Description:
Order of helices and strands: HHHHHHEEEEHHHHHEEHHH
Strand content: 5-15%
Number of helices: 14
Largest sheet: 4 strands, antiparallel
Oligomer: single chain
Amino acid sequence: MATNIYVGESWLREQYVVKARSLKEIAIDLGCSEALVTSALRRFDIPLRTNNGNDKLTKEWLQAQYAAQKTIETIALEANCSTATVSRKLRELGIVVRRPRHESAFDIIGLRFGQLTVLEKKTGKVVCACACGRKVRCTPGSLTSGSIQSCSKCAWSGIGQADTALVMVISKARSAALKRGLQFAVGNEFLTELYNAQGRMCALSGVRLNVASNAQEHKSGLTTASLDRVDSNLGYVEGNVQWVHKDVNCMKWNLRQHEFIQWCHAIANHMPIQPIGAQTEVALTESDDNADASEWDSDLWRQVTKNAASRPI
């Protein structure tokens, strides 16, 4: 379980205030404790719910709200409690709960998504048959979003959609963005078309990008394509995304594009050109400032490597 969380205020406010989700539900999504979620709410000055709404959640009041076709989220907001509390009260009072909207996703049984044909519903998920004959168990949302279109073996062997491996890179970027509370409003089709429109080359360096052809190559780090935001203050939206080399994305970090380019020009004009991968030896003269400089460089490098390790590239 995580001992620290990195979450945006807008995402947390939407989950806790707008959707009226409980601390436990949010903690499960973030993989942390409820105490950390509480700490984040206080840090962003988001008022905590002071009670569970039990005084207001009478059978008569709930029946009236539910009969008015109000959603559980709306009822929770009015009662100043979580959706989990409302759901529990409905069950305890014997009020028949309407089928959640997401369950309509199971109506996709018999439909085909990429190489997968939906066969049946099973414990909250669906069982699909891949064109190769293998069975795949997944959520309906992963099919309708396009993140899964074949079994894992076909995805890496090329039997599935031509850009299935790229879709996996997109899915990883999407998951990381949502965990950080960033908007992700671009689909697989748009990002695949963008990748091809760039000639499968880095938008900033012109270097050829690569997507691993199998799982072993991917684990070895041969996938170099990385999704970047032009303006790091904005989310992943059309007009603000581009495909770059993962090393470029790591160096750009949270800089805006024009700022990053200015730094690149400054470094290129100041330093002699070295071939990529070449080792450069720097001789330090003995002075009183050397110890401080070395210590500063060491601290900076630790911060850079820490940032790089947390990037979804």
